[in-house]
Each structure stands twice: as C-alpha cells, then as structure tokens.
Amino acid sequence: MRQPVVLISLESPHSFWRLSSEHERALSAAFPGLKFRRATEEAVPHQLADAHVYFGWRFAPSWLFAAPHLKWIASPSAGTDHLPVAEAHSVGVALTRSYGFHGRPMAEHAMGLVLGFSRGLFTSQRVQRNRAWWKDDLAEEFFDLAGATMTIVGCGSVGRHLTQAARAFGMNVIGVRRTPPAASEGGITWVHTTAVHQAVSIADVVVNLLPATPATDRYFDHNLFSACKPRSLFLNLGRSATVDHSALLASLDTGHLRGAALDVFDPKPLPARHPLRLHPRVVLTPKSSVFCRAYMNEAVAFFADNLHRYLSGQPLNGLAEAPATRSPLVGG
Amino acid sequence: MRQPVVLISLESPHSFWRLSSEHERALSAAFPGLKFRRATEEAVPHQLADAHVYFGWRFAPSWLFAAPHLKWIASPSAGTDHLPVAEAHSVGVALTRSYGFHGRPMAEHAMGLVLGFSRGLFTSQRVQRNRAWWKDDLAEEFFDLAGATMTIVGCGSVGRHLTQAARAFGMNVIGVRRTPPAASEGGITWVHTTAVHQAVSIADVVVNLLPATPATDRYFDHNLFSACKPRSLFLNLGRSATVDHSALLASLDTGHLRGAALDVFDPKPLPARHPLRLHPRVVLTPKSSVFCRAYMNEAVAFFADNLHRYLSGQPLNGLAEAPATRSPLVGG
C-alpha cells in the first residue's frame, strides 16, 4: 500500500509564517508512515491528485475537484472565512482552523492599543513635534486601567488570553458569547449575546473578536455603538465585516467614542484618503495583531497533534462547522 | 495647650493632584487632636510660623527660616530632588517622600510604551496617513514580549510593580540595584550595580527608574548605551539628569537602539526643534507616567499612616536620606 500523502503549502514573505526545512524534517520524523510533500501555491492544484491531507494557508474552492482522495484541509489560521467551508463540507472533506496560540500576540497587541489610548501615548506621539507642552491635555484624557472594565465580544480562546493580560492590570472583564460558561470562569463575567447592549454600556474598553459569519455581518452597527459607554474605546481585532464603519466614524465624530483601533478593515489597504486613515483618534494596524516569531512552530505543533488524532480516528480539533449551524459568537 | 498645626498646600491644575474638601474632612476626623490648615503656595511662608507638620508639593529652602516649630515636611511625590533635603536635614527637620502608589500607573505607562514599540503601534500611527501598506515593515520590526528580557535600572518599589506587569506578558526581568535582595525575590533576577553593563547587554528593553542624585548624574552615558543589546529599546521614567541625551541620540542614529521613550527631559518643555522631539523613533510623554485618578487618595492615605507614626513616635516611612549617604540605585 502506498503511503498516505500530506500536501503542504505554507509560503509567506515573512519567515515566521513559512514552513522551514526543520519543521518538515520534524513532521517526517514524527510520522514515518506518511509522505510529506511541499508545493508552491500555484502548484497545489496539480499536486492534489493523490493527497489525503492538505496543510496550507489558502484553498480555492475549485481545488476540491482536483482532490479525489482528500479527507482533510488543515489551516494554520484562526479564522475560516477565507476558506471553502461549505464546499468542503458538502463533499465530505473536513476543514480545521487552528487555535490556542493566536491569543498571546493578540493580547499583547490589544493591550498595547488600549494603553496607547489610556496613557495618552498616541496623543503624545502625534503632538510632540508641534505642541510646546501637552500635559494638561493628557491630564484630561488619560484613564486608569485598574478598576476599568473591558468587554470582549466574541470571547473565545483569544479572549481568554486577553483577559489574563487585562486582569494583570486590575481590569474587570466581561465576556460576551452565544454559549457562555455557567460561572465566572477564567476571571471573566460571562454574559449571553442577548445582553450585549448592557455589556458594552458599562465598558471603558470594548474589544471585538467576532469571526465573520452571516450572523455577525455589521454586528457593530449604529445601535450597538450608541449603547456603548460615553468616552469608551473600541478595538476591532476580529473581522472587518462585523463592523459598520460609517456608524463607527459617526460615533467617533460626535465624541461618543474616545477612539478606535482597527487591525482589520476593508478594502485592505484602505484608499489613500479614507476617513479612517485620517481620523486623529483612529489607529490602524495592518492585520499585524497575530504577528508572532513562534507562529509556525505553534501552528505545526497544533497540526501534528491533530494529525495524530486523524490517524487514530479521534475527532479533529478546530473543525469548522457548516455555515448554517455555525456559532456566531466564538471569537478567533 | 494649643493643638499642633498641620499646614497643607496641595494645589494643582489637575483634580487628581489636589486635596479635596473630603480629604481634609477625613484627616480632621481621623486626627481630632490636630489642627489642619490649608494655604496656597504663595501663602505658605506666612503660615508656617506655628506649623509643626507641612504636607505639600513644594517647599522652598528659605521657608525653613519662617518655620521655627516645624518638625516634618511630607511630600506626596516619589522623588525628593526638587526638595531641600540637605537644608532640612541640617536644621533637624524630617523630610519624607511617598511610595507604593506610583508603581501602578507607571507600570501601565511603561508597558504601553514597550508595546507601542514591540507591536509597531507607533510606526503604524505615524505612517497610516501616507503609506499604502506597511505590513512588511512591521513584520521586520515587531518583537514578542513573551520570552524577552527587561532590565530595570534603579529597581525599587516602582520596579516591582512594573515587574508584575512585564511577567504577565511572559517577560524575564532583571533588577539592578545597589542593594539587591539575596534571592530572585518578586520574580526578579537581582544584580548589583557593578554588573549593570552585563545586565543591559542581554536586555531587549531597558527601563531607567534611577532617582537624580550626584551619583546618578549622566549614569546612562555613551559607555552604558554601547553596552546595550543591539536593537534594544530604552525607556526613561526616572529623572532626566541620569541620561546623557547626546549619547542617547547617537545610539539611536546608528541604529544600535531600536527606539526610546522619555517621560522626563530637560528643559521641560524641550525647545521647538530639539532633536528628541523630531526623532522618528523617540516618543515623548510630558511627565505623565504618574498620572492616576486615585493619586491624592493614595497620597493622603500614605500621609495619614505616617502621621500616626509621627504622633506615636515611630520612625517615619519614606525618610529622605541626607545627600552624602543617599543610595543612588533605589528607583522612585
């Protein structure tokens, strides 16, 4: 019998998102019964004919037609909205996302953005060249994290990491989720989606970690921004489609929101003179919240664990649900 | 016998640095045997004649001549370099600083500055208006806090707070101090001042919390900056006089240092076209690292505790040492 083939396509301009030869050697050593083969993204459709497992960043829906033996598409990403979840499901191919290791860098990123606003650091950087002195402005503007409240909408694995960081600064954390745990587990006060308006109304910082699904499309709309506590801060480290950006800009312009930081937006990049680029109280980062030098080490470890499960017939971790049944409030 | 008089002068443009009527009422209620009197800064020299205790932001050396009964000058500040320590000492007046509550806001401030650099947030804010896309730049530039090393020079009460925050992000912390504790107490690897060059050579982030004393004047000089790890980050939240700013700028310009954030500088404000204002990898904050809405609550609580000690003849906390014997490496 021929060895089952695992096709890998993990290219990136950034080394931390690229499979190294060491990773490949480690996988081969750990799974001597499998044949690992690498392909550039262009070559993937031509290499899928005998592949049983695919591990890669992208998978075009049409590639399924070229993959008669494929049983499983494994992604190193946290989200699956760029992957053919419905199509794979309809032809009986499993599709998994990865989780557990995006939380650490995203918690660093989110806390940096929160502190950049709360301590007036972004204001300072903006005015240090042309204002004589701005101490009085910051004395008005700053807020203490100790005792402040952060509400995390779509509070899953990433939200739990973020909670640990926020609590280290003495913040109270409210986690909004469609399926909240019963107790205040993990130092989080859990509330159900139905109470999201109340949860944002008492938050100094709202962090959006919602995945993009039909149910979360423009979830943060005029109504939800209006429910936010006056002078609160809004962060989006989830998906751009979950936010109505006109409503966000309106809430910033009236002063209802103190500021906003967005790691995701659409189109990417934004047009040159887009108001989100120019707004003095908006900070944009280029989907860099998941940057982590150890990313591929972690992604390969997650994949290897799942590969053991696959080979021994256990259920895979991170299975993407078919769109119709997908939970909208489990953050990346 | 007349009631001993406590003269208070705690004015500020900022409410969190001002004594409120509630604070005054609470002190009067807690110490019914004392007479509390408030004075504007201008009025202090005319009100000192019968004062036993002074609690205030400033104290001019000449005021000592107008205060024949004065026994104790209490400051709500962490530092004493703006106060007449030597003069008070020479006439037998105790002078105390405050501690234990500056660490929390300063830890928030320092971690915000570190994350602003490590996650590329300051770069993002600077270029988001005029660069199409800067993801590749950030992919080069960012670093993970998890596993990185922070060296705190002048690691006292503030340094211990900062350590807790840094360790919540998985950082290793080295504390440099003239009198280091024996073991790795408080999650800190303690080293003696004599090993400061080695301590900064392995640090991704160096935080300067040194007080200003004759022994710390330009402590961070060309030699010490050269000893820093290439591409490391330098923060000064201590005192301006402890840094040779020409040496700092040189280390930034060669690229040896990744960046610098300064909460203190001299003169304050800096001249309009000072190179520290204009440097793209320098972030300046206007001595705002100690901003804290609860500041005066904490300062009054510290003072009240010390006042109990004073009245019962116990040693005061935060006594400023006479300049000649002052420890140079205990951070504010």
From TrEMBL, chains A, B:
Keywords: NAD, Oxidoreductase. Residues 111-286 form the D-isomer specific 2-hydroxyacid dehydrogenase NAD-binding domain. Residues 61-317 form the D-isomer specific 2-hydroxyacid dehydrogenase catalytic domain. CDD domains: 2-Hacid_dh_1. The keyword Oxidoreductase applies. One of its GO terms (molecular function) is NAD binding. It comes from the Bacteria. PANTHER family: 2-HACID_DH_C DOMAIN-CONTAINING PROTEIN (PTHR43333), D-ISOMER SPECIFIC 2-HYDROXYACID DEHYDROGENASE NAD-BINDING DOMAIN-CONTAINING PROTEIN (PTHR43333:SF1). Belongs to the D-isomer specific 2-hydroxyacid dehydrogenase family. This is D-isomer specific 2-hydroxyacid dehydrogenase nad-binding protein. The lineage of its organism: Bacteria, Bacillati, Actinomycetota, Actinomycetes, Kitasatosporales.
